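Practice problem: Stage 0 sporulation protein A homolog
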Amino acid sequence: EVKVALSRIIDILFISRKIFFGNGEDKILIASRDDIIATLLVELLIRGGFSAGHVRDLDELLYIVDNARPDLILIDLSIFDFGSNKFHEMSDYNLNEIPLIAIADEGQLEMVEKEIKLCIFDYIIKPFNPLEIACRIRLDLERYSSFRDTCLRDALTNAYNRSYFIERLYQEFGQFKRNRRPFSVMFLDIDKFKDINDIYGHVVGDKVLKEFSFAVMSSLRNCDIFCRYGGDEFVILMPDTDGKSAVRAAERIRENISSLKIDCGETDIMLSFSAGVKEMDDSITSCDEIIKAADAAMYAAKQAGGNRTER
Ligand code: GH3
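Answer key — structure tokens:
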């Protein structure tokens, strides 16, 4: 009965008023233990022009994030057993840049403010107006997309920026300390890049940085975080990767870069790079230490003549 009644309301809202918020492509995932609310929200969003689905717990949510990559997650805070560290666990996961909107009870407001506001993009208090949910999702999708482009990424290369790297490194570091989840850090620096600028000019130098970044990104797994650290220096945060596998990844990148020819009119520019890899282990007590160790390994690769990886 509730469903039929709601269906009618939804019809009035969306069909008779011809209000559509989505384009049928944006995938919204609803995480809630409350099946009635979730079913109604799914129906409401589909009628409003989104594509929508529902999960009931965190494991299912992480599975869907890995396999179907939703564009936005509406997360009812009821899926967490507060007091357990489940919520903190979730904030440690890379939700692959997916904006989260929390649905909270009034009683959960203090927790939203104190504990979780850093990992959500927006929140809605129950009871909510269905029309408001659809409006908010539309608006948040747009706001998030410009936030992601301007705040998380480097404008020239489209790699993540340094502050995003540091933020994600802290999360991986926490995961290692809590769950012993391995990870590695790899620094990459283009060999003799300054000569390219000096000979061909900065415009060509910029093109080289862009094409290098694109080629590296195409050689990585989805979960690897590729960032521009500064100038011609890049860093890759590699979750679930030990040192040996990170070195193998560096050699795969080297193979791709060695076949890259960058057209600069008069000639094709060929590139090589030096890499330094450091795997997280118990001797490392801070994020700074692992950065320094990977950077030192990269410096050793340069000192040894470049175009190689040191660990
Ligand atoms: P090495 O092989 O020892 O690393 O030498 P290198 O010439 O690659 O490295 P170095 O660090 O001396 O020079 C990096 C240069 O990159 C210097 C700087 O002017 C240039 N650079 C930094 N950012 C940009 C950028 O955004 N665009 C361009 N075109 N050049 C940049």
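Discussion: The chain has a mean pLDDT of 87. Students who identified this feature from the tokens alone can consider the problem solved.
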